[in-house]
Structure formats: structure tokens, C-alpha cells
Amino acid sequence: MVTRVALGTVFMVATLMIVSFTAIDEPARMAQFESGYHGRSVEAGAALYANNCATCHGPDGKGIAGRAPALNAADLYNGTRFREMGWGGTTHDYVYGAIAGGRPRASAAYAEYPQRMPTWSRDFGGPLRPDQVNNIVDFVMNWEETALLEVVAEKPSDFVAVGLDLKDPVLPAGDVARGEKLTQTYGCVACHMNPDMNAAPGPGWPAKYYSSGVSIAERAATRFTAADYTGKATSAEEYLRESIVQTNVYVVAPYAANIMPVIYGEQMAAQDLADVIAYLQTIK
Amino acid sequence: MALFKLHVPILDDIKTKGWRSALVTTVDQTVERITAGINVGEIRSILRGEAPKRPNPRVKPHADGFWMHMRPTFFHEQVMSLYPTFRLGWLTTYMLVFETITGLFLMLWYTPSPDIAYTNMLSLLSNVPFGLFMRDLHRLGAELMVMLVLLHMLRTFVTGSYKKPRQFTWFTGGVLLLLTMFLSFSGYLLPWDQLALWAVTIGASMAEATPVVGREVNLLVRGGADIGANGLLRFYLLHVFALPLIAFIFVGVHYYKVIIHGHSLPPGAEKVGEDTARKVPMERRLYFLPDVMTRELFWTVGWLALMVFMVTWGGWHAPLEPHADSQITPLHTTAPWYFLWLQGLLKLGDKVFFGVILPGILSGLLFVMPYLEVGPSRRYADRRIGLSIAALTIVIMSVLTFMGTPYYGVSSSPDQEVLTTLAPQTHPGLLRGTAYDELPVGEWVASGWNNAPSQGLQAVLELYNREIERYSDQLLNAKGKMSITEIQAGLKQVTMQVEWEDNGAHASEPVTVYLHRDSDYEH
Ligand code: HEM
């Protein structure tokens, strides 16, 4: 009996020890399960996307002209697109809502799509279960990182950053259309194309998004001559160039310094900067 | 004032006997109350391993205590070694209690609705400390309980313990066998994953063939033509309420019968035709306190340690497949292992005969066996025929179980078989288990496995090649193609296709598997 009791006690202590070790590892284990499950959700979403979405949005999410817009594109993740729809939540929820409920009409920016986005969730009469909609959202959101970084990824090997100077190098001629695209990929639009003027962290570009009703093109043309101007620009182009590469030199009230990052001089090539400036000067 | 005078006996004791003695008396009385009759002195005597005094003061709890009155005061020492019971009945009882406790924990996090059940499982595993641990223990316990019941039945057959007067004990045991299997089976559905849905669909469709009532019973249990919200709720209520309740009642009946007749002695220990289980001579008695109790606790703790070890360092985990989907029938779904023999029987032919009538007759025979097999001797030498039939039954059941698996008599095409082995629809399989970085982007062929740039890919292609060669008589000049592309950051697409010749060129339906860097199928 003594052996039995002793051995039983050993078993009990061993069990308690294993349980304690398990307890120590629980937070890490739960986190691992969470990320593992997210991975599986993306996988399931990929299959669902291939079967249900790829025919209109393209297998690579780049969209199909006349059918459906790109999902693998910066403007979906930097907030431009959902702001245009008047959505106040996160990108994730916007994507979920669009997939689950479909779209009663195409947004103004995508008026060229005659087919409306169908409803997918069973909750609204669609064919998919809510968890499947979640899988697709996880898959779509998995594009976010690369879509936003696309510009960086496209940089050629002989890339030369434009730097911080206002005159050197001399900028080549700008391409307005490319400039407009770049403002999306660099994420400028998230702050500067926000219809909600009071909520936007930066001044809106179009006249209708700015408090005094003046567009960025007009503001740039005159501001460098203003009495309280503290920068070094001597032309509208230089003023815009300065505002982009040396963001804190001159900040217009009521906006605060250090909101707009001082990174674009390093990220943009001379051509990029020229294109963006050319585009800004066309905004009404 | 006398009206408010409090009577605190210990104060009186302290006054008359002094601190020490008063305290000792109080502790002693308290212990005696808790143990329903054993005082501190007796506990010390037990711990010192002393023989009990006469009359034995250690039988008092059996008379006074509720729990102890269910247990005999002593057993014959010959039924208390490992043989003849192997503790199987005790461990089964323990599993029933164990499943109740772990099950209660799981119930806290579970809602029986197809909309949310699977999500509940995910949050149990990702947000509840010890959620995985409890789920694994509950699932492992369920599987072990079925095994223990079967082994326990086998042992009572082998030792001839079902013979007169214990026929009814066996009969109630039969009821418990069915209850255990259905408890386990009803729990199978609850996670609401593909495994659950299809295993239960297969199980339920076997019952569908029952003449006359099959369809009705099925509708009643499933709550509709398919298993949906109603079916899940019904299975849930069976699993957490009805079946456990009946099981507890029947364990009571069963154990009552065991006690009434006494544990049967080893067959060789008594004369043929005699049953001396209830006449235990003084010198052969083993008292419950402390000998039997410590033995039982020892087995309980040992068994618990084994299970805890298995679900932690042993790496045993309850499976969780993708969300249940009635539109997607996975290739090669099987019933739970203890019903595979039925699935095997069904492959032999007619659904009604092999699926219902034959198993019905067999289980009926199992129940009434003790009333038909009435040979007086329990000795092995006198029961050669019976023991041979038992051995034969085990062999037949094993063969039928094998026949129930996809390895026997499956009708799908060899190219699909090959691809399903690599990327099974019922469990993760080798491809999904391979690390993300071990699957380099590119076009690969199975036969070139030797030159694969990574070990992981090499293992996958080697299996691919081996499977193709297995079917080389049907897949002539076959080529197993595998293309791996990275379609998103951290997401690869693996597409496989088998090409072969047979009066012209053929190609299988391509099978595509997506693999995310984090998906971690190993855990
Ligand atoms: C939930 C399922 C079951 C439980 C909890 C259970 C429990 C027990 C216990 C505690 C004992 C006494 C100890 C021992 O013999 O190991 C026992 C004895 C017995 N059981 Fe079971 N049992 C179950 C299922 C079965 C089944 C399926 C059968 C056979 C069809 C069966 C037939 C017997 C018989 C004949 C005895 C008497 C053994 C003897 O006197 O030596 N039991 N059972």
C-alpha cells in the first residue's frame, strides 16, 4: 500500500507539473492558434475568391475594365474609396459590408460598371455563410500590404530619390494622370481628399474640401507671397515641392506640424514628384 | 440575561479540560463528521498500515455515509489484483464522471446553433485559457471510454462473468455499451466542422434503412431531411442531457447488480457450478478502507496522468476541420471508428440486410447471450467453443472495420485518389503540413522528386510519385504535375494535375490547394 500511495502521489505531482507548464505557455499558444486560424481563413478565402469573385475582379484582384474595379489597389486600403462612399468605419468593415450586402449601385468614381455587386452573405439573401464572407475579407485584406507598397516595389534599380532641396535637381515635365495615381499609392488622398473637412488631419485639395473654398492649385499660386510665409519657395511649383519634401517648414493654421511625414523626399524620384505637382496644379 | 446566553461547547471544554485537550477533541470530532465515522486516531492507524481492531471501526462510513454505502465494506482479495477485472469497470465509471466534468467546462463556451457553434470552437481554442486542453481531454476521454467499455465487455465474457446469476448485469452492460457509443457519436456533431457533419450524416443514413420506422426515427433525430439547426439542437440535448442521465441511471443499476452478486472470482478459484463470490472467508477479506480505496485512487490518478500527458507533451489533439458545409462532400468520409464495422458491412451489399437487419440481430444476440449460453462452467478449458467464437468475432469485427475504411472497395478514380492522398479533404495531410518556405515557387514533376530543391518538397513529390506508381496499371505513362505560385504576400497556390495515357491523352481535374505562411497545420 505504501508503494501505491507513493506512486500515486508521484503521478499526481507529475500531472500538476505538466498542467502548470501548460499554463505558462497558454497565452503564446492562444496567440499561435489565432494567427494559424487567420492563415487558414485566408486560404479558404482564396478558394472562395477564385470561385466567386475572380470572374469580375480578376484572378489577381487587379479588376477587369467594364466589369468590376480592382481590389488589389492602394485606394481601397488608404481610405479613398470608402470615403467617397461616405463610409466612416475601417477598411476591413467596409470590405465586409460590400461583400456581405453587395452594392445597390456603383460608386460615382466607378460609374462605368454597369453590373452591380451582388449580395453574398446568407444574412442578406446571398449564397455564402457569414464565416465564408469573413474568409474572403481576410483574403482581400491580405493584399493591403503589397497594394500600399506597390510604388516602392515598382522602383527601378537605378532609383534616385529626389531629396529635400527645392531647386536641385531640376524637375522634368510632369504627367498629370500618373501624378493622380501616385497620390493614391502614396496614401496622400487619405488626408487630403477627405470630404469631412473637420475630421481630416490635413487640408483638403479640391476647393469643395477646403474651408475657404480655394483649391490647392490656387493656394499654391499665392501663398508663398503671403506675409506670414516662413519657407523659401519662390514659385507655386517650389511651394508645392517644399510642402511635400520638407513638410514642417511652413504649416498653415489650424493644422499641426509633424502630422504629414517627412519621407517623400526619400521615397519619390524626381519624375514622381514632378507628376504629383503637375496633378496638384490641375485640381479645382 | 440567561435568555441571550450563547452555548459554545468548545468554551466549556476549554474551561474543564484546558486548551490542548479541547482542541484535540474538536479536531477529532470534525474529522469524524467529514469522514462519516473515522477519527484522527484511526486515520493514523491506517497510515501506519496497522490491521484494524475487532470489530472493525473502518466499516462505519459504509453504514453512515451516502457515497460509501454504495460500496461494499470488503472484497475477496482474489478479485482485487489486476486479474480478473483489469480495473476496466472502474476506469469506465471514472471516464463517465470525467467526461461530465470536462463537458461542463466546454458547455460554458458552446451554443448549439450552426450559425455560431464553429465560431465558438475557434474562440474556445484561441481565447479561453486551457480551452484546447479541456477540449482535447474531453475528446480523448470519449474515445478511451468506448475502448474501455469494449475491453471491459471482453473481459467479462472471457472470465465467464456473464453466467448465472449475472445475466442481467451483462444485459444492463449491453445498454451501457449502446449508451456510451451514442454519447460519443452525438458529441461528434457538436463542433460543426466537416468531420462532424459528414461522420454523423453517414452514421444517420445507415439508420435510415431501418424497415418501417427508419425514416421517421431519422426525421425525429435529425429534425429534417438534412442535419441543420434542428438536428444540431437535438444532438446537443441528447449529448448533454438525455444520454448522460440515462447512462448514470444504468451505471447505478449495473453496479447494484455487481454488488448484489459480488464480483465473480477468477474462474479457476471455485468449483464448477458454484458461485462463492458472496461468501468471503474472514482471512481473505480485503477491506475497502484503506486497501480498495487506495487501489482505486491509484488507478484514477495514473489514468489521469496518462491522459494529461497525451494531450500535452504527447501531442494528441482533437481534430477540427473547416466549417461544416452540406454542399461539399469530402472524399472518403468515414463514420467514427467504432461504427466502421457497420460501414464495412454496408459495402457487402443490401443496405437493409447488411446495414440494419444483420447488425440488429447481432446486437440482439449480444444482449440475450447469457440467457442462451447456459453452460455451467466458467473455466476456460470447458468453454473452448465460446472463447473461439469470441476470438473469431474479434477477427471478423477487425476485418469489417478495415473494410469500412477508404482502403477497401472505394470507387473513385485513381487520379483523384492520388491527389486526395496529397491533399486530403478529411484531414490536413502531408502537403498542408509542409512548412511554407519548403515549397519553392516553380513547376515540379513527381518523378523528379530526387532533384527537388528542398527537403519538404522532396517528401511531397516522393509521396506523389509513390502514389502514381501504386496505380501504374491504370495510369499509364503518368506524369504528376505540381505548380507552385505565390499569389499574395505569404500565400501560395499549389495546383496539381495528373496526366496519363490510355487510348489517348488524359488529364485529371486539377486540384488546387492554398497555403498561408501562418496556417500551421502541424498544431
Ligand atoms: C458505461 C459502461 C460500463 C460501466 C461504467 C461498467 C461498470 C462496471 C463496474 C464498475 C463493474 C465492477 C468492476 C469490474 O468488473 O471491472 C462492472 C462489472 C460487470 N460489467 Fe460492467 N460496466 C459497463 C459496461 C458493461 C458492458 C458493455 C458489459 C457487457 C455487455 C458489462 C458487463 C459487466 C459484467 C457481467 C460485470 C460483472 C463482472 C463480475 O462480477 O466479475 N459492463 N461493470
Can you describe this structure?
The complex is a heterodimer of chains A (284) and B (523). Chain A is mainly alpha-helical. Chain A folds into 2 domains: 109 residues, Cytochrome c-like domain (Cytochrome Bc1 Complex, Chain D, domain 2); 105 residues, Cytochrome Bc1 Complex, Chain D, domain 2 (Orthogonal Bundle), CATH 1.10.760. Helix content of chain A is 51%, strand content 0%. In chain A, helix 1 crosses helix 6, helix 5 packs across helix 6 and helix 11 crosses helix 13. The model of chain A has no long low-confidence stretch (mean pLDDT 87). By secondary structure, chain B is of the alpha+beta class. Chain B has 3 domains: 55 residues, no CATH class; 304 residues, Up-down Bundle (Cytochrome Bc1 Complex, Chain C); 103 residues, no CATH class. Chain B is built from 20 helices and 7 strands. In chain B, strands 3, 4, 5, 6 and 7 form a 5-stranded antiparallel beta sheet that branches. In chain B, strand 5 and strand 6 form a beta hairpin. In chain B, helix 9 runs antiparallel to helix 10. The longest helix of chain B is centred in the middle third of the chain and has 33 residues. Chain B is globular. Chain B starts with 8 loop residues before the first helix and ends in a 7-residue tail after the last strand. The relative contact order of chain B is 0.08. The interface between A and B is large, with 44 and 48 residues. Protoporphyrin IX containing FE (HEM) binds next to helix 7, helix 9, helix 10 and helix 13 of chain B.
